[in-house]
Each structure stands twice: as C-alpha cells, then as structure tokens.
Request: fold
Amino acid sequence: MGSIASLLTATDSHAAQMKRKRERMCRFMRDNKVPTFLSDKILQYYSYLWESNSNSIELWADLSTSLKTSLNAAVLKRCLHRCPLFNKLSSQFIVSLSSVLAENLLVLVPGEILFNEGDGGAAMYFVSRGEITIFRKNYVSGDHVQITKIGSGGFFGEVAIVKQTVRAAGAKAATFCEIYVLENTDMKKLLGRYPKFKETIAEHIELMTKQRRLPKETSDGGRRTLFTRKKSIRKMKSIRRMSTFRGNEKHTESIRRMST
Reply:
C-alpha cells in the first residue's frame, strides 16, 4: 500500500510541476513577444506531455533497478520483436537494449523534421506512439513528397547502427510522436558486450536492404528493362531530330519560293 500511495503522490506532483512549467513558459513567451504560431506549438507540446504521461519514467522512481529493467523490456517488447534485427536474439541482449532505449525517448510535435534527405545518419529509431512520414524533397517545387508512413511499433534508419551513412530520405512527425533512439555509439557498446550478435545483425541489415530494392528490379536484374528504356529514349530523340530537320527543310523551301 505504501508503494501505491507513493506512486499516486508522484503522479500528482508531476501534474502540478507540468502545470507550473506551462504557466512560466506562457509568461516568458508573452514577455518576449514570441510569434503566435510558435507559442501555440510549444503549448501543445506541454499539453501533450501532461496528458500522455510521456515523462512517466519519473513515476518509476520507487521501483528497484531490476523492476525498472523488466518494465523497460516489457514496454519496448512490441517494437523490438517487430524488428527482424532483434527478434531472434537472446533475452539478455533485448533487456540490455531496452535499458539503453529507455534513456533515449524523443517527443516530436506534428510537422517537426527529424532529419532531411542527405543528412548524415548515426541512429536508428523505434516508433512508440504516433506516425512518422518518410519523404523526399521535390527540388523543382520544394515540396516534400511522401514515400511511406511508419506507425506505432515500426522502425527506420537501421543501416546507421552498423555504419555511418547518408540518409536516402527525410523523416518528419505526421502527428505527436514518441520515438526511441538507438545511437550508433550505443550499439557498438552493446555489441562489445555481445560480440556474437555483430555478424547476425550485419547480415540482417544487408538482407533487408536488398529486399527493399527488389521491386525496382526484374528477374534479369533489371538489365532488359534498362536496355529497353534506353532504346526507347534513343528512338524518341531520333524522331525529334527528324521532325526538326523536316520542319527546317519546309521553312527553307518556303523562303526559296518567296525569293523567286
């Protein structure tokens, strides 16, 4: 009963603390004439944290270390088991990984960009709540073109945990999002403790990368399709040149007739 009472007290304390923070932030933004669109976004962020208990880790203060570790693993189990990189690894590795991820929870507001196409990549991400949009930039219009969306339980950016890479696409929050971040440096430390899994993870990443490329290829590796496309392009260029040449011939003939 004592632990439950302590937990309820911590919950009330957290709510009161969030309310005071929100009020102080309101005064600060008003005094400094912060633009309305930005102040609204910041207040929405505080409201989300308050209502969703995103900082619920504070409620675990009375738990023992072993219970915190077990709770982390239980919370992150759904994300990790959906990821082919980790779903067949030992329970000890998953528990250690969960402890690392629990310390790296990131909250994004709608429209917030996590990274852009072409940025350096050094982390993998697991979506706990919300939805992330993966996009590429249209350099003619400047618009973001959606490639796909990743919802709760999904993951992305896995190549970056085994090697430094350049992002092939950008990622931004479609809604309020809570994502767990696995940094390349943290992964290296984990694999230092569990070296036998290093090769397994690298093989999975290579396989996943190849599978994502398959829809773009044909049974002959795409060579026949590529050859056909090149042939069609050459044919179109030839037709255009002939049309231009014939048009010039007609124009020259008209001028000759007018001069005579």
User: Anything to note?
Assistant: The first helix runs from residue 2 to 31. The chain is about 55% helix and 15% strand. Residues 1-5, 214-233 have pLDDT under 50 and may be disordered. Strands lie at 105-108, 113-115, 120-121, 123-129, 132-137, 144-150, 155-156, 165-166, 170-173, 177-183.
